[in-house]
């Protein structure tokens, strides 16, 4: 109230002054002088009074003198004045904002799908398990070095990230894992935040699961039938069990929910890397105890109704490669958003990227996202399943319904293929130099990569100037040049490359993950846990009634392959490669900023998210012997219409899709008991079916 | 910038208002504005004419100054190293003792047994899952615990959502308020007010983390069995304990606090009882899964506070709600009727009834008799230093022959509280007719059951003069029939004559230690850990409220004081030894006598230990709530208690800790209680 009065006073007092510049200047001046005199007398009187009170106080004296001299505007005074004004106005606005009713009468926000379905009579039926993906789950500190004083049980990851700014090195140290074991470094315990709060919001205001949770709550879900399977996403999957017993915990919770909710099977909703984590869980839970959970072969059939994979990177994402190679992925780790391009160069001497790389390379889980299936899936030097994808067509295709004109599209693609020479060769996931990314394979230098990479003894160049150690420092200049000379890497040779540039990490991680295709799934070696998260090397459990959904966004250009260059040979540059952001294609080309794009959800290409549901598991295949039904549900991306919409209710982006209304409705309906057929079966906008057909894999 | 904009706004506002003195109209206004602008451009410093200070300018200046200084301080505070306050403290008071976790880690202790916390009443957070229109935007926000911000913003809405259904004791239609889960449920009650946080931090020092520490959060408003019916909380606890035992290979140590003690008693019976009513764990579940139950401040026999809480919402702090309704609001000054709202809300909470004194006159004393009779309130401070127990009691007996009639839990009038029973004239209230003809109750916004009672009923209650633990139940039946009807289906307050009677299979007896047998688990240990040395409410002097229609007709007679300074009667409350909330008798008796050795309540001979912690108030303000406190909640920060818990969690037995550790007269008092064991 006070501020209101003040403002009004301001409005009232000021005009009096302005009138002195009007035609009636004189009169006004007189008036003003009078006023001034009055004021002076008043202030003098005041002075007298004050003088009586406390003579000795020098400060007040000074003030008084100032007043006598009609106090001049000094700079600092005006500053204070301005700040005062701003604060007052700010408070006023805040006050008004709070006194507003929660919902403006005129503005009716669109009804949430939960409320709508609730009215239709859709009620909570099956318990729901949410499995968060990489980097969206919070991590908190349980034990740390002295530099983390006062951070006990505070979030290091997620939330406001204030600690990065306050003590960046300390923060990095605590988020790193041990380089040898991939577990905690001695004296440091950072653990996943449990419960729904683990991943409802990633940062204040940036929802991940919150919207879905809210809508589930509208149809009657609460904590007793909704569980967030939070796990430490930095660890390899089996290590989450070794260290935290996260898998046992998940098993026990699912069993509990199954029992307490009237023996209703659970609906599992994994997102992003959580999809692979849950694949791992499916195998783990049925296998006998020393390595597995001992649930017995019928466990999944008894306990799981449906798995609704959101943005599943079943076959990995190309992003993971660039992330490991030069920590330059656009957003697979949100780390990237915290070190903007400026810091790539050593301007501030911070070596942010190097630090980020060193930390990220201790995280085994990233390896689970490296493209799987080799050239069969991702294409070789001259071939890729997505070839013919026209980036300029992406827009147009949204207008036409995709199902019917697939053929025309196909021929269209073929025509372009024959017409244009620089058709993107997506199979070359990494090429050094723009040329190498499109010239015919016959023109490529034929170097025996294996020999090249394995034969070289790595001499350690004198890297004393490095504060930050990355494994690149152990590579000699020549071998780095050799890497670049090889020009082109497909998903097959890529692994060799990674083994070469990051030997420690790959050695650690390859004990936990595998990236091949199984020839014979009956081979007993596939009982090892390193194969469990690779859909091409594992069988789905024997659960014919279980449903598997692939829900993902389409219509956003998604990183698929990269054009690299050598970094300028600075003395202390520790990352020798970087994406050649100058490489641009023609206007319609898929090459932009050194990156070839395909259709996808901004992080995961359609191929990776859709193939398993579209073909690999469809019907009875060797990967899906019991014939669990699969559904592909795509969500066409539409950017938010206005700022008011926030991140949009029809977004198809990797994380924002969790706020997509159509998506939420699907999840709600299935959780309330609907089957895949009842919600409409497949719903496809992209070329996934055609692409899948092109992949030559034994099923 | 901004003030220019302001001027313009002022101008247009004035032009819009069209008052007489602005002759020039709109155009003139524009001209003026331009002039003003040009004047401003000449710069605030070097203008031809020094600007005058108007009042508004000074205000702005002042606000600006304050803000800048504030920001500066804030910045400094944030830039300050985290260890600074500790450094200051150490500079003033000398080096602090190591927290117990650090100390014991140096001794080589490491996490062994998984730990289960069971929080008490009111300390657990509650959050909103579904609400009415007025709770818009509060989804999954804490209604209880945290900052209580919503209480101030929309008090009536808050009260409505916190209340339960008056008939069923479950959710009212359209409202779902659920307990917060995980350690965050009760680590801090409000920002800065720790409950479990200190204990958790110390356990973490020896290697505990989320996987071997579990907070059994439950909705503390519900009756115990209803938490299972509505939320399956008991099943959840069972499953989690089983999981922790399976993954760690060791039995769990359970640490219930306050009402959690009763809740866990209930759990131990539930888990072994067969499936429809119980958890179906089989008769050796506890033996297989539980190493020790370390009850902190356990109100085994209830607390007298609960009575005054139910009777007139006047408990001192059983509900922190009380702190939110200070005495001023007792009167109708602001027309808020806060107390009435509180009463209506708390009377829908079944759990408060689990704390009504149990065991009747046998335990709590009759009209002329009570176990603590000769407790002397004045010697409390010095007793530990100068005298042994026997000397102390001898002295006390001499000093204070008359004693206090603690057995009279509620007396109407101070003299009634003191005189011998034969001199009291009592009129039985039980038959009294409840007047339905109470004058216009329609005035009252808030409905409490007292309005149904009528003047006659109120008078009858007051005429009975004195209520003991036995008759208090009848009293509550009389004044709060609905509440008690709901409650009696879930709780029972008697003493079992024959524990083998099949009726004791019913869950309403499970949380009463006098009507249940402990599980068959001879290796299990039961501890009673509680603070002593703080005056604790034990009996009340009531008076009738000056008659007005809408108010609670009874209130504590705060004018009643004892004659001497040493008297136990202060402000209408008789105090006895305890931890400020739970009298020693209630917290200690079961472990001191009721379960000691093989008794009928403890057929398998589970070992019991009493560990008392003498209260020492914090030495200075910097210590916060003290590291040697014995108060009901603050004891969770008591270093000695934490050390005991950590040792047990790391594998020690009660004997290793040193067995009993007693400061109060609990053994003597226990002897006085005539109970068949």
From TrEMBL, chain A:
It catalyses: a glycerophospholipid + a 1,2-diacyl-sn-glycerol = a monoacylglycerophospholipid + a triacyl-sn-glycerol. It comes from the Eukaryota. It is an enzyme of class 2 (transferase). One of its GO terms (cellular component) is membrane. The chain crosses the membrane at residues 78-100. One of its GO terms (biological process) is triglyceride biosynthetic process. One of its GO terms (molecular function) is phospholipid:diacylglycerol acyltransferase activity. Pfam families: LCAT. Residues 28-64 are annotated as: Disordered. Keywords: Acyltransferase, Membrane, Transferase, Transmembrane, Transmembrane helix. Its EC number is 2.3.1.158. It is found in: Membrane. Belongs to the AB hydrolase superfamily. Lipase family. This is phospholipid:diacylglycerol acyltransferase.
From TrEMBL, chain B:
It is found in: Membrane. GO terms for biological process: triglyceride biosynthetic process. GO terms for molecular function: phospholipid:diacylglycerol acyltransferase activity. Gene3D superfamilies: alpha/beta hydrolase (3.40.50.1820). Residues 17-27 have a biased composition (Gly residues). Keywords: Acyltransferase, Membrane, Transferase, Transmembrane, Transmembrane helix. It is an enzyme of class 2 (transferase). InterPro entries: AB_hydrolase_fold, LACT/PDAT_acylTrfase. GO terms for cellular component: membrane. It is a single-pass membrane protein. The chain crosses the membrane at residues 59-80. It comes from the Eukaryota. SUPFAM superfamilies: alpha/beta-Hydrolases (SSF53474). This is phospholipid:diacylglycerol acyltransferase. The keyword Disulfide bond does not apply. Belongs to the AB hydrolase superfamily. Lipase family. PANTHER family: LECITHIN-CHOLESTEROL ACYLTRANSFERASE-RELATED. Its EC number is 2.3.1.158. It catalyses: a glycerophospholipid + a 1,2-diacyl-sn-glycerol = a monoacylglycerophospholipid + a triacyl-sn-glycerol. The lineage of its organism: Eukaryota, Viridiplantae, Streptophyta, Embryophyta, Tracheophyta.
